[in-house]
Amino acid sequence: MRRGAPELVVGLLLAVLLSSYVVYTRRVVRDLRAEAQRSSLMYARVLRAQTDTSTDAGTRALFDLTQSIIAQGVPIVVTDVRGRPTYHANLPLDSTQDEQVQLRRFVGQLDRQNPPVTDSLVGKIHFGNPSLVKWLRIIPALQAATAFVLLIAAFYIVRTRGNAERERVWAGMARESAHQLGTPLSSLAGWIELLEDRATDDGTQRAVGFMRADLERLDRVAHRFERIGREPRRDAVNVAELVERIANYFRARVPKLAHAVTIEVAQPASAVAVRGDAVLLEWALEVLVKNAIDALAGRGGVITLSAEPRGRGGACLRVADDGPGIPRELRGRIFDPGFSTKTSGWGIGLSLARRIVEENHGGTLQLAAVDRGAAFEIILP
């Protein structure tokens, strides 16, 4: 239903547009036919009066003409030379109000629609537009507006469908790449086991341990690509353990001598559990940690990770550093795809992290206000 919603909306709008056009056209045809019939009857009355020799034939003809004009539905107010209303027709008068006051008000309204007709004997004839004219002004404008909305919707659908097709292609390529990585990863795991069996000194064993950690991370990265394009998972995830695991991984890979970077973890008092996808959440957190490490490059500093439960349920994950921070004029663009302050950056990290948090987990990723450095918070429900 979500995929077909735009087409359904466009179909409904198109149906409304066509239906309104048909109904409106039929009404115009009906009114024009009635007008033609009234005009024919008026013409017949005039011809009859011309051939009738009775004394009251002209009076009856004039009376019939007056009734035919009233039947056309044209609002009319006749005023004398002093501007006093003497006759009216087809006006929605309120019986509870003064008639003369209402007629004077209607005179102004009718004159704004059409200039009055002046007769030296009768006075002024103030007339408005029949309902057909009113609809002729409104309906075409509404139909044009609906057609314009349909054009915009059609353009949006075509563009969205093109983007969705490209995303499906990229998702398929990502899952295929993850599948192809499975074979060499399994082979590397075997080689690492062989090295572990033959390692004789502490240095080699330590190096093999780091290699296994990197291999496990590669395996998790491969699983990340398998998640692309699939329905989000809702597993129980202990985000406190997730934060600790990410901190331990990066501690062994950040500078420790010149411009040392320290990674700290603020441990919560108890386990912090949420519903989500552990693989994708780890991906989003790694993006934030990598950005913090890049911000401290060449100067050193401290990165603090934390996971705290929220009072209404859920959790708040925080990654903060004491680096130079983000300039105020760039804060509104940091989540835009393709935007990066690094010359070698692709500008997709923060955009990807926000998409994981918002679209896959229904949370928010925001830049928090701090006195020094930069801090990002992931709010999970």
CATH superfamily of the domain at 232-380: Histidine kinase-like ATPase, C-terminal domain
* Order of helical and strand elements: HHEEHEEHHEHEEHEEHEE
The CATH architecture of the domain at 232-380 would be 2-Layer Sandwich
- Give the amount of beta strand, in percent: 15-25%
How many strands, what sense, and barrel or not for the largest sheet? Answer: 5 strands, mixed
| Arithmetic mean pLDDT | 80
Structural class label: alpha+beta
Radius of gyration: 40 Å
Strand ordering within the main sheet: 6-8-9-11-10
Which key terms come to mind for this protein?
8 helices, single chain, alpha+beta, four-stranded antiparallel beta sheet, Heat Shock Protein 90, five-stranded mixed beta sheet, 381 residues, elongated
What does this molecule look like?
The chain has 381 residues and is an alpha+beta fold. Among the domains are: 56 residues, no CATH class; 149 residues, Histidine kinase-like ATPase, C-terminal domain (Heat Shock Protein 90). It is built from eight helices and eleven strands. A five-stranded mixed sheet has the order 6-8-9-11-10, covered by helices on one side. The chain has a four-stranded antiparallel sheet with strand order 2-1-4-3, covered by helices on one side. It has a two-stranded antiparallel sheet with strand order 5-7. A hairpin with a 5-residue loop joins strand 8 and strand 9. The two termini are 25 Å apart. The mean pLDDT is 80.
Give a short summary of the structure.
With 381 residues, the chain is α+β, with helices and mostly antiparallel strands. The chain has helices at residues 5-51, 57-71, 99-113, 131-198, 202-227, 239-251, 278-295, 349-361, and strands at 76-79, 85-89, 117-119, 123-127, 235-238, 261-266, 273-276, 301-309, 315-321, 364-368, 374-380. It is 56% helix and 15% strand.
